[in-house]
Write a structure and sequence with these properties.
mainly alpha; 3-stranded antiparallel sheet; two-stranded antiparallel ribbon; 5 strands; 347 residues
Length: 347
């Protein structure tokens, strides 16, 4: 019988140290292969954090500084306003935005408004003559003193003196309208003197006196500004008692004179007082139109025909109204712009 000997099995335990060493070596090798050590990573993180904090601090400082500056400026402005308010009797003063002179001046009227106002006056003139004056004189002959009195209403735009023209006229209305229109328009146009003018003295005199300097550079522009400034600065004529008293006195004299001179042609259906009241109202409207026209920035003027412009036997009943400059004082083309035409009749 064979002897069976037990086999010896050698169980050699695995050493833990060897595995651990292998693992550390692998980590070390990985770190070295990345080129950044843990200490460097930590340093970068700390640096970034400090930079962000520094930027936040600087931004906060700038914002607070700006707010402080704005608040200080506002407080200073309020303090000045309060001080000014105390000087003005305790009323706070509001800061008004800066403005130019043009912001305060009235805007010039448009052409249609100018036309309407002028035509309205001329229609009233026509109605006065047609209603209160006769086509023929009431007497067979004009009184001997009439020609001398009529000379006050004579016109250089008539082919013959007014007295002889009226005596021979088949219809006196066009001649009377012409005489009255010339009288009125000459009284609402700037003149060398204030005698018989229907305008405030400062408007009547200064505007005419300045024409001696018309050759100066920018004259028309300055004159346009002067008209607008005068209309804004001077008292409203409608509420100026000194002007109204002078105007009414002048109108009363003119109305009485006209009624007396044209008495032979006054309509017998109306008494003298009714004629005076109607003519007074017409002259008051004329004064208002004159002030309105002179207060506009554009230069507006009444224009009668020049010598040789009319055919023989023709008569301009009323003058044209022309616009010589625009709102800025610039000359209107070569010829003045006609806003209201001059009616012409055969006599």
């Amino acid at each position: 019988m064979a002897n069976t000997q037990p086999s010896t099995v050698s169980n050699t335990p695995t050493t833990p140290t060897q595995h651990s060493t292998s693992s550390k070596g692998s980590t070390s090798t990985s770190s070295k292969s990345n080129g950044v050590s843990p200490g460097a990573v930590a340093g970068i993180a700390i640096g970034v954090g400090i930079g962000v904090a520094l930027i936040a601090v600087i931004t906060t400082f700038l914002i607070m500084r700006r707010q402080y500056s704005v608040r200080r400026s506002r407080d200073s402005r309020y303090a000045k306003q309060h001080e000014l308010g105390e000087r003005n009797g305790g009323k706070a003063s509001r800061k008004v935005p800066s403005a130019t002179v043009d912001d305060y001046l009235p805007q010039p009227a448009d052409d249609d408004t100018v036309k309407t106002k002028t035509k309205t006056l001329f229609v009233q003139l026509d109605l006065f003559v047609e209603n209160f004056c006769s086509v023929k004189p009431n007497n067979s002959e004009v009184k001997t003193e009439a020609p001398a009195e009529l000379s006050a209403f004579d016109s250089p735009y008539l082919p013959k003196p007014l007295s002889s023209s009226l005596q021979r006229a088949r219809d006196a209305h066009p001649l009377i309208k012409h005489a009255l229109a010339r009288y009125i328009t000459s009284r609402i146009t700037p003149a060398a003197t204030t005698e018989e003018t229907l305008l405030p003295a400062d408007l009547a005199l200064l505007s005419n006196a300045t024409t001696a300097n018309a050759s100066k550079t920018g004259f028309t522009k300055c004159l346009a500004r002067w008209r607008a400034l005068t209309a804004y600065i001077r008292p409203d004529p409608a509420s100026d008692p000194a002007y109204l008293a002078t105007r009414d006195r002048t109108i009363a004299q003119a109305a009485h004179s006209f009624i007396a001179v044209f008495a032979p042609w006054m309509n017998a259906k109306y008494n003298a007082q009714e004629c005076l009241e109607a003519l007074t109202a017409l002259l008051q409207e004329a004064a208002g139109l004159g002030i309105f026209l002179l207060s506009q920035a554009p230069e507006l003027a009444f224009q009668w025909p020049g010598e040789g412009e009319l055919e023989k036997g023709r008569l301009v009943v009323k003058p044209a109204l022309v616009k010589c400059t625009d709102e800025l004082g610039e000359r209107v083309a070569r010829e003045a712009q006609v806003l209201v035409g001059a009616p012409v009749v055969r006599v």
